[in-house]
Amino acid sequence: MLDKNGIAKRIAKELKDGFYVNLGIGIPTLVANYIPEGINVVLQSENGLLGMGPFPIEGQEDPDLINAGKQTITTLPGSSIFDSALSFGMIRSQKIDLTILGAMEVSEHGDIANWKIPGKMVKGMGGAMDLVASAKNIIVAMQHVNKAGESKLLPKCSLPLTGVNCIKKVVTELAVLDILPEGGFQLLERAPGVSVDYIKQATAGRLIAPEDTPEMKFD
After folding, report:
1. What is the CA radius of gyration of the chain?
2. Is 46 a catalytic residue?
3. What digits encode the pLDDT tens for the residues 79-129?
4. Which family does it belong to (predicted)?
C-alpha cells in the first residue's frame, strides 16, 4: 500500500518529455518532487506560474512564491510569472498536455467530484472546472477509500460534480486504473503487497481486474 508520496512517484512515471503539466491541490503537488531524470516538463499553476520546481528546502521558502494551493514553491531557470487571466487562457486554449487532480470521488464513467461536500463551507471551485473542461488528459491522484473505509471509486458520484466523462486514469494507494470508454475501471497495476481481491473489495464501481495484474514498478 502506498503513501501520498508513493502515489505521486507513480504518477510521475506518466510524464512525457516536453509536456506542459498542471498540478492540482493536494497529492498532485508532490509530483513536482519526482520528475524522472532525463524528462523535461514544464509545470503550470493556474494562479500564474510557468516553470514550477520542487518544494523548497525548509528555511529557504519565499512567501511570495506559491502554487494554487498557497504552498510555497520554487521556480526553475526560465520560469515565468503572470496574471491569472493569462494562465486560464493557457488552460482554456488547451495548451496543457496533462492535468493531475485530486478527487473526493470518481465514477466508473470518468466523472469527477473534487470541490464540494454539501454543508461544508468552501472558498469555491478554483480552476478545477476549467481544467476538466479543457484538459487533453487528466489523471486523478486520490485515496481509494475514505476514512470510514468506504470506496471512493463508484458507479455514480454522490457529491456535486466538477466534470463529466473526463478522467482517463486513476492512481490510488492501492492501484493504477484506466477508465474504459464504455464505462468501468480497468485494473492495470496493484500496489506492492496488495492483492487483486483486496482491490476488488475496495472498489464499488464496475471493475475489470485480471488475477495476474502486476505490481507497480518505480524504476
Report:
1. 17
2. yes
3. 999 998 999 999 999 999 999 999 999 999 999 999 887 777 666 667 788
4. Belongs to the 3-oxoacid CoA-transferase subunit B family.
